[in-house]
Write a structure and sequence with these properties.
Layout (H helix, E strand, L loop, with lengths): L28 H4 L4 H10 L2 H16 L15 H16 L3
Helix pairs in contact: 2-3
């Protein structure tokens, strides 16, 4: 069989960074509010990595809070589902080089 060797990286490189074992505090609506829904939708439309990551993170934080779920109903935000599906389709295309 093959013997696995421990890789050692120089101490100042990113690869040598160890993961933190402490749990992060869960963000809530109070930590990110107020956020304009139009800004979330425009960030998703942009297709830019930083913008779409921000928008998806904010959606996850806000949708975890039961008091915000009604605000994100599809009747209040027409086009949100289409944007999310378009982003998902584009991401799958990037992953599988389609």
């Amino acid at each position: 069989g093959q013997i696995k060797r421990e890789l050692t990286f120089p101490p100042d490189c990113v690869e040598a960074t160890l993961p933190s074992a402490e749990k992060r505090r869960r963000l809530t609506k109070a930590d990110v509010a107020p956020v304009d829904a139009w800004r979330i939708m425009m960030a998703l439309k942009s297709g830019l990595l930083a913008e779409t990551c921000w928008a998806l993170d904010i959606l996850n934080i806000l949708l975890f809070d039961d008091s915000c779920i009604g605000y994100f109903g599809l009747q209040h935000l027409p086009g949100l589902l289409d944007l999310l599906l378009e982003h998902f389709h584009r991401t799958l295309g990037d992953v599988f080089d389609a």
